[in-house]
Amino acid sequence: MFKKTPGTKDILPDEVSSWQTIEETTRNIFSFYNYKEIRPPIIEEAALFNRSLGESAEIVQKQMFLVKKDKDVYALRPEGTASIVRAYLENNLDKTAGLIKVYYIGPMFRAERPQKGRLRQFHHLGCEVIGSQVPYLDAEIISLADNLLKAYTIEGYEIKINSLGCTKDKKEFTEVLRKSLKDKIPKLCDDCKVRFKTNVLRILDCKNEGCIEVVKKLDIRQNHLCPECKGHFDKVKEGLDSLNIDYKVNPYLVRGLDYYTRTVFEIIHGDLGAQNALGAGGRYDNLVHDLGGPSTGAIGFAFGIERLLLVASREYRVESKKLVYIITLGEDAKKEGLKLLNNLRRAGITSDTDYEDKSLKGALRRANDLSARLVLIIGEDELKKGAVALKDMVSGEQKEVKQEDLIKSLKLIVTGQ
Ligand code: AMP
Fold it and tell me: pTM score, two decimals?
């Protein structure tokens, strides 16, 4: 028998309602903030990610699923931002739309070592605002992330923020870091030894005990920020304070991708274990220009849906008990049942039947297994009277209802209308 690819997951029918609740809530909240949905393709030219994320980024180095076709190399997208900036430029949205606010929900692919909370196909829900550098947007987007979590009824998370500064500040910071880490290289893990050469900021983010010890002693503050970037970050914090957002400034917070500048943030949750980030994001003020567009600011974030579901405090169920289940006894009743089923579905009532001609007892058991709210039974008697026996599966009561009154009575019970 075939097995699923390691690091992928079947989202089975019983789990789908939780996903739908998250998706529905997400769409609602984003619409309150006047974001529109965008759906870029899942496959992109691999070079787009090399260019955007940076050649030294771990995703580019080790984790991209590449698809070769003739001379072309494509990648299954490992994240959404690069595709969205590509779509923004290719469709001239910079010229027609000015500031755009978009959100997306969909699968991402990274060839990581699978473990709890870390998959090879996982799902992001995220957003991007392209076209402005104003710090108020940073505060708004962090508060939007906070409001999403509140709407999912998730509690116990922590918002960490930092500013990496502009490209010049980042470069300076990299130099300072390299100097202070130079004589500590032997104490670093193998990955960080490579990072020392390629992506030294990432060492601050390493989860290896030895590296954490080394990093702890570095005494990092925000000394590397130029006056403009410091001013920007102060305004972000003021904005967050005025919105009453609970956050912590963490000077050690960095992001693994080259495109990040200035504000970065991460939201962590203690119940997640080693992979403790629920979501993360930040500014990427150079990326639009780097990909051939105008110089314009941009900011975004993404949550991992699987991780949101791991910490969701209650089981999400969109489908309350609303199924109407039809049981027919005999060939004539079956024909009548099929017609009725068709009418109910046309009237927008979720309904089903026992296709297999089970006994009344067997059919009722099946209705129960399906959590049916109501059962309609049609036997010879009911056929003669042009009626059905309506059994309420919550109260257990049973009564006879004329066919012509049926839809109205059902709607009243099932939808309350
Ligand atoms: P990133 O783009 O790496 O900052 O990811 C944003 C969020 O996506 C993380 O905080 C996680 O919630 C989720 N995420 C990232 N990588 C994975 C993965 N391999 N498996 C599951 N979720 C992930």
Answer: 0.89
Longest dimension (CA), the chain: 94
CATH code assigned to 324-414: 3.40.50.800
- Ligand 1 centre from 310 Cα, in Å? 13
Distance (angstroms) between ligand 1 centre and the Cα of 116 equals 12
What distance in Å separates the CA atoms of residue 42 and residue 22, rounded to the nearest whole number? 21
7 Cα–ligand 1 center, Å: 13
Name the class of domain 13-166+226-316: alpha beta
Domain residues of the chain, as ranges? 13-166+226-316, 324-414
pLDDT tens figures, 373-407: 999 999 999 999 999 999 999 999 999 999 999 99
Q: Is 125 in the pocket of ligand 1 (CB under 6 A)?
A: no
List, in sequence order, every residue forming a beta bridge with 76; answer none if it has no partner. 43, 65
The answer to whether 275 touches 307, Cβ cutoff 8 Å, is yes
Amino acid (1-letter code) at residue 394? V
Instruction: Find out whether the beta carbon of 138 lies less than 6 Å from any atom of ligand 1.
Output: no
* Per-residue 3-state assignment (H helix, E strand, C coil) for 243-280: CCCCEEECCCCCCCCCCCEEEEEEEEEHHHCCCCEEEE
Which structure tokens are listed for 331?
A: 């060939």
Q: Is the pLDDT of residue 94 over 60?
A: yes
Decide: 52 and 85 in contact? Cβ < 8 Å: yes
Instruction: Give the strand order in the sheet containing 72-76.
Output: 43-45, 72-76, 65-69
What number of other Cβ atoms are within 10 A of residue 332's Cβ? 13
User: In angstroms, rounded to a whole number, what is the distance separating the alpha carbons of residues 99 and 76?
Assistant: 28
Q: Is the CB of 110 under 6 A from ligand 1?
A: yes
Atom of ligand 1 nearest to the CA of 275: 11
Question: What is the number of the ligand 1 atom nearest to the C-alpha of 280?
Answer: 4
Mean pLDDT on 361-365: 94
pLDDT score of 417? 66
**Cα 272 to averaged position of ligand 1 atoms, centre (Å):** 12
Give the pLDDT confidence of 287-312 residue by residue, as tens digits: 999 999 999 999 999 999 999 999 98
